[in-house]
Structures are given as structure tokens and as C-alpha cells.
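Dear support,

I submitted the protein below through the web form. The confirmation email said the job was done, but the results page showed an empty box. After a refresh the structure appeared. I'm attaching both so you can tell me whether what I see now is the final result or a partial one.
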Amino acid sequence: MNSTPGIVSSDPRSIAVRSIQIMADGEPADFEELVHPDAVNREDQVEPPAARVGGPKGFQATALWLREAFAGLHYDIHHVVAEGDLVALNCTMSGRHVAPFVTYTPDGGVGTAFPPTGRTFAATQSHWLRIQDGKVIEHWANRDDLGQAEQLGWVPPTPVYLFRMARAKSKAKRG
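What the results page shows now:
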């Protein structure tokens, strides 16, 4: 992979790695450079409505959603495997929970709101990316959401945390 920020080789592995890294540190131009205008994120079902659009804007909205809740968001890439236009990455996402993390329902309403715990986490993930025309055209993932929830104190929830969740959800619904 090219080590110069903002410059990505045409190698599918490099494109895939950088497309994950920009979730933590990318600017709008990075998303335009790396994400195909017709790109689909197969993981957007619980994300904010702004993240449910295709292309660079949707992927950037996902990044902003994650960055808002998790300070110091970072991805350590452990393995990258490519076959043709498909690239699989094994990584660890880490950060500190500093703001409410809100999930959404299929119709775009507020699903669950996890108020900040201040705790750090490091959760394993596998990302699958299809590359077309030198850009990400499709993304889906497998994540250790339960491990992340346990590290952040979301499960098992204490009665006090359940109350805080209800307040956070009510606040998120008000906008």
C-alpha cells in the first residue's frame, strides 16, 4: 500500500485497506476518491438515514456517525486477502465511547440509544469489499458486536444504565 495519505494505488488490497482506514480519519475528498458513486453498504440497516444513501456520501455519513460516538476511532488491519475484485480484511476497531451511540429502525426512526460510558473497546471485525473501477462498489461486514457491548458496559445492563438508555433514546428522538 502506498504510504502517502490521500494517494492510493490501483491495487484492490490497498484500496480496501484505505477505505476502512478513512472511516476513522478520512475527509470528503477521500470518500470521493475511494468509494464508487454506485457503492452499496450492506451494513446500513441500523445506521442513520444519511448513511443509507449509496456512494461516497453514505459511506462518509457512516464514518461521521461512528466518529461522533467513539473518540480515537482506529482500525488495526491484521490480514488482507484478495481474489479478483473481492477483498476481505480482518481488523480490530477500537475507540472510547464518548457520546450517545444511536441505532436506527428500518424506517429511519430511533432504535436504541447507548449513552456514553467513557470506556474503551477493541472489537474484531471482518470487512468484505468488492472493487470496481478502482473504487469500493460494495461492502458488508461481520463484527463482534456482543464483545464490543460487553467491553462498553452495555450488556448486561444495570438498572441505572437502562434508565440512562431510555433518557438517551428519548433525547435522540427529539433530535
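Response: this is the final, complete result; the empty box was a page-load delay. The beta strands are 35-41, 70-83, 86-97, 101-104, 110-114, 120-132, 135-143.
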